[in-house]
Every structure is written in structure tokens, then in C-alpha cells.
Amino acid sequence: MAARGVLNLVQASEAALIIAAQAKDQAAFGELVKRRQGWARALLRRMCAGNAAEADDLAQDAFMKAWDRMGDLETPAAFAGWFRRIAVTTFLMAKRRQKAIFEEIDDASPIAAEDSSPESAAGAKIDLERALARLSDAERLCVTLNHGEGMSHSEIVETTGLPLGTVKSHVLRGTEKLRRLLEAA
Amino acid sequence: MNDFNAFLTRSFAEAEQPADCGFSARVGAAVARREKAARVRSAIQLVGVSVGLAVAGYTLLGFVFGPGQEFLANTGLEAARAVGEFDRSAPQVAAQADQAAAGLIQSLGLGLTQILLIGGALLGGAVAYRSAQD
To answer: pLDDT at position A120, please?
Structure first.
């Protein structure tokens, strides 16, 4: 009987799992976590500059918050965006606890400095994750949400609470830095 | 730049996702612990509120059937004495009320104990409720 239940859970659609999780079905939520953990952890690892342990802790926090707030989710189709917002908020809260300042554009390191880095000079291979790690926290967040998650500037503003001008600047500067870093690799 | 943007978007999409490696199990265990803790808190809250209500009800009943009656009687006599003070036509009632005034203070003292008990029970219930919410 239990084996059949597990089989049904595995075969269930994500919408069905979400509806069951909203009814406080822990097994359904567990299956939902299994399906979404890769995406959620990859997103947070990028935001955390590749710090896997920190990203996994934040991902667990985000899933716990999602469990507590499942009732707030209006439709199963909105789960991805809804969870992404929880993940970003969890990340921002953690960074604010660490006194990282997101509102200031000046936290970004100068673009020109990247070309003279030892990695570029040595012609070391820099993949996307490593290149992202070279950006400032705010740049990395905005670039990840824009290019990685396909969010528009206004959606990033809504999710992060950063001013529109700041978001545009972070995306532009971050993208330009990535271009230089990846071309140099 | 547009080509690079497309390349970047593709790179993000093609990036590998981390393997589960027990992550889902850890989240599942954390959810189970939280639900268990919530059930315990709920039970403690229920017991706390029930005990608080029982103590408050018992104290209230004790007050109504004990010093409450005396209190009401004394209040009535006090009212009569007050009326008598204004209306000198009832000196006997006023004299009785004077005697009862001392009894009123006594009954208030007894009542105060009951009031403190009710207050303590309500406060205890509130603290239990608040801690359960946290």
C-alpha cells in the first residue's frame, strides 16, 4: 500500500503535489522539494558566489518558509515565481544580517580592473560560475535574476526592493564584467 | 552585446544543477520536526488555556457564591446609607449601613484575593498563548 502511495506521488503532476502540500501533506511537499531542489540550490549557489554550504542552508530556509506559507500560494502555476521570491528574500535577509549593502552602486569593483587580474593574465579557464563569483553581490543577484531566471528589470525591482535605476545599472555592469571575464578566458 | 546576452542566457540554462545528496531528506526531516513541535505547542496552549479558564471560572463562582453575596448586600446597605444621609428621615437604616461599612472593607479584601487569582490565571494563559505563538 505504501509502495503504491510512493509510486503515485512520483507520478503525480507538480500542480497535484502543490495542492496536496497546501493541505499539509508532508510526503507531497517532500516530493516537490525533490523536484525543485536542483533549480533552487543552483539559483542560490549563483547568488552566494558558489558557496555551496551557505546556499544549501538558505535553500533549506527557503523551503521551510515555503512550507509555512503554502496557503498563501494562489495557484499552483505560480509556484516557481512565488518560491523564487521567497529564495531571493531569504538571500537578501541573510546578506543584510551580514551587513552587506545592496542599495549602493558603488560596491561594485571597477570593470577595468578585471582585465589585469592574474586569472585573465594567465589565460585560465573561467566558467560561468567562477565569473559570477567575481561580481559584487548585488551585480550577481541582478544578473542571475535577469539572465538566469528571465526576469525583467521591473520584476527584479518587485522581488528585491531595489530601485529601478540601481537594478539596471547592476545588470549592465555585471553583464559587461561577465563578457570581459568570459572573453578573456 | 545582444549576442552575448543570448549566450549568457543559454549558459545559465545549460548550467548543471546540484545533485540531491540527501538535501530533500534533510528538508523533509526539518518539516517533520517543525510539525511535531507545532503539535506539542498547540497541546500546551490548549492545556494552558483550559487550566486558565477553569481557574478563572472556579474563582468567579467562588466569588459569586461566597463574598460576592456579602459584597452585594453591603453595597445595597451602603447605597441605603447614602440615601439616608441625604434623607434624614431614615436614621435607622443609616446606622445599619455604618456597621456594614466595616464589613464592606473586609469583603473587598476577600474579593481582592479572588481578583488576583483571576488576574494571575488570565496572565498565565496569555503567557502560555504567547509562547505557543513564538
So the answer is: 42
pLDDT, tens digit (0-9, with 9 covering 90-100), for B84-96: 777 665 556 666 6
CATH number of A105-184: 1.10.10.10
Q: Of A26, A29, A56, which is closest to B23 when you measure between CB atoms?
A: A56
* Nearest by Cα to A175 from B40, B1, B28, B48: B1
* A2-70+79-97 topology per CATH: Rna Polymerase Sigma Factor; Chain: A (1.10.1740)
Q: Which domain holds residue B84?
A: 22-133
Domain boundaries, chain A: 2-70+79-97, 105-184
Distance from CA of B47 to the nearest CA of A (A): 24
Residue in A60, A128, A178 nearest the CB of B27: A60
Total-model pTM: 0.66
Q: Report how far residue A125's alpha carbon sits from residue A119's, in angstroms, rounded to the nearest whole number.
A: 8
> For residue A21, what is its C-alpha cell?
502540500
Kindly state whether residue B14 falls inside one of the protein's structural domains.
no
In a domain, B94, yes or no: yes
Residue A100 falls in which region: left (phi positive, over 0), alpha (psi -120 to 50) or beta: beta
pLDDT band at B106 (very low <50, low <70, confident <90, very high): low
Angle between helices B23-65 and A26-47 (to 10 degrees): 120
Please count the residue pairs, one from chain A and one from chain B, whose beta carbons lie less than 8 angstroms apart.
Answer: 72
- In this chain, the answer to whether the domains covering A2-70+79-97 and A105-184 adopt an identical fold is no
Residues of A in contact with B4 (CB under 8 A): 175, 179
What residues in chain A have per-residue pLDDT under 50? Answer: 1-4, 105-125
Q: How far is A41 from chain B (nearest CA, A)?
A: 7
pLDDT for A117 equals: 47
Residues of B with Cβ-Cβ distance to A56 under 8 angstroms = 23
Closest-CA residue of chain A to B14: A148
Domain count, chain B: 1
Provide the ipTM: 0.73
Cβ-based neighbour number of residue B134 at 10 Å:
5
